[in-house]
Design a protein that fits this description.
CATH class of the largest domain in chain A: Mainly Alpha
CATH topology of the largest domain in chain A: Fumarate Reductase Iron-sulfur Protein, Chain B, domain 2
Number of helices of chain A: 9
Number of domains of chain B: 1
Largest sheet of chain B: 2 strands, antiparallel
CATH superfamily of chain B: Fumarate reductase/succinate dehydrogenase, transmembrane subunit
Largest sheet of chain A: 5 strands, mixed
Order of helices and strands of chain A: EEHEEEEEHHHHHHHH
Shape of chain A: elongated
CATH architecture of the largest domain in chain A: Orthogonal Bundle
Radius of gyration of chain A: 20 Å
Strand order of the largest sheet of chain B: 1-2
Mean pLDDT of chain A: 95
Low-confidence stretches of chain A: none
Structural class of chain A: alpha+beta
Oligomer: heterodimer
Low-confidence stretches of chain B: none
Number of strands of chain A: 7
Radius of gyration of chain B: 20 Å
Number of domains of chain A: 2
Order of helices and strands of chain B: HHHHHHEEHHH
Distance between the termini of chain A: 55 Å
Mean pLDDT of chain B: 94
Distance between the termini of chain B: 59 Å
Helix content of chain B: over 70%
Shape of chain B: globular
């Protein structure tokens, strides 16, 4: 199949970027989206042109690295998958595909489709530690916990920190990411010890990084490759309010 | 800054301000609507004018009205601050392809809350000038009910809505308020953390009904006044 690609090219955060058109006519529908970009890059290298910079790592949907906005959708129009899990069979012969980087002030562009998501790392760092006993590993069933709560915590823990929520949000808010991390730990006994401190510290860091304010648009949930629910955002609001008004902690 | 001002200036704190003032304004709409429905009583405005006098003289209502003015201003100012912060966080370079997939809310309303809010704010300005300011400072005709002199606000209202332009402006503004509520009602609860598998469907259901029914009832009133139809009868005799 043949596709026309309109790809955002930008040589650095302080440089001006623009869309550049590329035509590919040897695309197979079995190819993954990233393989299609690999083919493009091989052609560019052969022509001694600068290949398109894009991030990728595991290529099996669990690392959250392959970030780009495809036809306006973070990770592409298919819901519940990352870019690497998107295949060319979801496009038609002759399609024009727009490929852009995640756009948010807190995610400065490094090159082309690659953005710097260190802001997420700093939020995770602000979250601090979880108190666990050292020594021999505890028996798996030593801490009783309700099955439904474990499942809920696990759903939140499925967040791969890719940043699609920020890219999809008209406010570039990181609330879905932060709420998934806070929820995942605050629901489990191991994470409860520092839960109040964690909620305030992570929200404070999120604000300092320059992310926008959540206005409950829910585009984040719609575009999240892991289907993280906005119910987590309500939980974060509860955790944060509870922490501010009931604990001695002051982040 | 102490812990409380820190909280109010945090992203979540700012949203809590929007949520609480918004919920207060939502409850106010019900009170306002019960007042307005009295315009449809077939009694040449007697009950409405007596109600208007009560609403402008009762000290408890007066106190609540100051809270209301403050809430409208706070909701508007905080809203504009958030809007600017969010535009800044997103950056100037938008996406070439616009998409708006959302989950369980109205995507048009959700992504246009600021614009809808600005239209509502302008409408409130016009509305206050047309009626509230006239009631406070204007030279209103007087009506006499059983020896009691009251300002005839009813006369001003019916005169205003004999002009089809004002009727259209009013009905349009109510549609805008409807969309603002369609997202705002449920969003207020989500911001307060009041989202739960058991209650959220109820909140969303009530919110949707509220967002349609309340503006619709408001909008019917000037239309009926324009058509000179007064279907209700008074319980005051």
């Amino acid at each position: 199949m043949k596709v026309t690609l309109k790809i955002w090219r930008q040589s650095g955060n302080d440089k001006k970027g623009q869309f550049v058109e590329y035509k590919l006519d040897n695309v197979k529908k079995e190819m993954s989206f990233l393989e299609m970009l690999d083919v493009l890059n091989e052609q560019l290298i052969q022509k001694k042109e600068q290949p398109v910079a894009f991030e990728h790592d595991c290529r099996e949907g669990i690392c959250g690295t392959c970030n780009m906005v495809i036809n306006g959708f973070p990770h592409g129009p298919q819901q519940g998958t990352t870019t690497c899990q998107l295949h060319m069979r979801h496009f038609k012969d002759g399609d024009t595909i727009w490929i852009e980087p995640f756009r948010a002030k807190a995610f400065p562009i490094i090159r082309d489709l690659v953005v710097d998501r260190a802001a997420f790392d700093r939020i995770i760092q602000a979250g601090g530690y979880v108190s666990v006993n050292t020594g021999q590993a505890q028996d798996a069933n030593a801490i009783p916990i309700q099955k439904e709560i474990v499942s809920e915590a696990f759903d939140a823990a499925a967040c791969i920190g890719c940043g699609a929520c920020v890219a999809a949000c008209p406010n570039a808010s990181a609330m879905l990411f932060v709420s998934a991390k806070v929820s995942h730990l605050s629901m489990l006994p191991q994470g409860k010890v520092e839960a109040k401190k964690r909620a305030q510290a992570m929200v404070k860091q999120m604000d300092e990084e320059g992310f926008g304010r959540c206005s409950n648009v829910t585009a984040c949930e719609a575009e999240c490759p892991k289907g993280i629910s906005v119910a987590n955002i309500a939980r974060l609001n509860r955790e944060y309010l509870g922490s501010v008004f009931t604990s001695e902690v002051n982040a | 800054m102490n812990w409380f001002t820190n909280f109010l200036s945090s992203s979540i704190g700012q949203k809590i301000i929007m949520s609480l003032t918004g919920l207060f304004l939502i409850t106010f709409l019900i009170v306002h609507l019960t007042g307005n429905l009295q315009l449809l009583i077939h009694d040449e405005g007697k009950q409405f004018n007596l109600y208007a006098k009560f609403m402008t003289t009762n000290p408890l209502i007066k106190l609540t009205s100051y809270l209301l003015y403050a809430s409208i201003l706070l909701h508007a100012v905080q809203g504009v601050v958030l809007w600017q912060k969010n535009k800044n966080a997103r950056g100037n370079q938008g996406y070439a392809k616009k998409t708006n997939r959302v989950v369980g809310t109205n995507s048009f309303a959700a992504s246009n809350m600021a614009w809808l809010g600005i239209v509502i704010f302008v409408f409130i300005g016009l509305h206050l000038y047309q009626f509230w300011l006239q009631m406070k400072l204007g030279n209103l005709p007087m009506a006499n009910y059983d020896g009691v002199e009251v300002k005839n606000l009813y006369a001003i209202v019916t005169q205003t809505y004999s002009n089809p332009v004002y009727v259209i402006v009013y009905v349009f503004s109510m549609a805008v308020i409807g969309f603002h509520l369609l997202h705002g009602f449920q969003s207020a609860f989500q911001t307060l953390g009041l989202t739960h598998k058991k209650y959220t469907p109820l909140i969303k259901g009530v919110g949707t009904i509220y967002a349609i029914a309340v503006p619709l009832l408001f909008a019917i009133i000037p239309v009926l006044i324009y058509l000179k139809i007064f279907p209700l009868s008074s319980f005051l005799h």
